[in-house]
Amino acid sequence: MKQDDSTRQDNPKRSRVWLILLLVLICVLIGLWIWFTPSGFWGKVNALGYSVCHQITPRSFVLGDSQSPLCARCAGMYLGALVTLIAHFIWGKHGKFPPLWILIFLGLGLLAFALDGLNSAAGLILPSVSFYETTNLTRLITGLAVGLGIGSVLAPIFNQTLWHKWLSSSAYEKGYRFPLLIAVLGIVGWAVYSQLPVFFYVSNLLMGLGILLTLWVIHTTLASFILKRNNTVKQWRDLVLPGLLGFVMVLAQIGLISLARYLLTGTWEPVVL
To answer: Which of 29, 59, 76, 134 would be 71's cystine partner, CB 3.0–4.6 Å?
Structure first.
């Protein structure tokens, strides 16, 4: 009994140590990232995109001298994932994957994404092989479709891995939700493609948030296994340690990929065709 009591007393102490270490590490990683990335607010936003996207200018949205932090395809993917993940978190702790007909729909979206990407690459390397002209609109639409799929799959994995009592149902069991989500993504796509100044800058911010949230969900799920805290989260505050470790992993991924790309290219500028 004494050993059990001491173990229970040590757990809060260990948690506090983990908490302090993770907070210090986050501060150090953010400080290093701020120090080494380009100056200015939008320079930092573009640096987020630098870690996950080629940022080729003709394949990105441009307003005056400003370029979006992601190419059109990645913009759709991360914005789609952002909207879908937020919707799932609002709808509850659903841990079941979407119904089969929705999975087929999402699979077709992934197929369109792949075909459009291959067609775009073929047009770049061998123009005569390209079947049609890939545009930023097709890149954006297929990116949104894949983002919808990413969020629809990641959210149930996150819920069934972390929550102690997750719902054994799909968030899409209420029939209006999937069409509603598609409609919202259609509005988001229109706002991005319109390139109106107010939408351009807001969407650029949301792209950065989409990168962080998508990576955070992935790494926090992994962190729960590292900390052996899977299926132990009963309320949001129980998510602090795995969430912080997941954020450390996100910062590490962004930093290491950015460092590798900078060492290879010697510049923070987009890839040039």
So the answer is: 59
Say which residue, 15 or 40, is predicted with more confidence: 40
Separation of alpha carbons 172 and 143, rounded Å: 21
| 84, pLDDT greater than 90 | yes
- pTM of the entire predicted model: 0.92
Q: Nearest to residue 212, comparing CAs of 186, 243, 171?
A: 243
What angle (nearest 5°) sits at the alpha carbon of residue 158, between those of residues 154 and 164? 155
Confidence of residue 128 (pLDDT cuts 50, 70, 90): low
134, two tokens? 């890939």
CB atoms within 10 A of CB 227: 15
- For the chain, the domains span 49-265
Contact 73, 118 (CB under 8 A): no
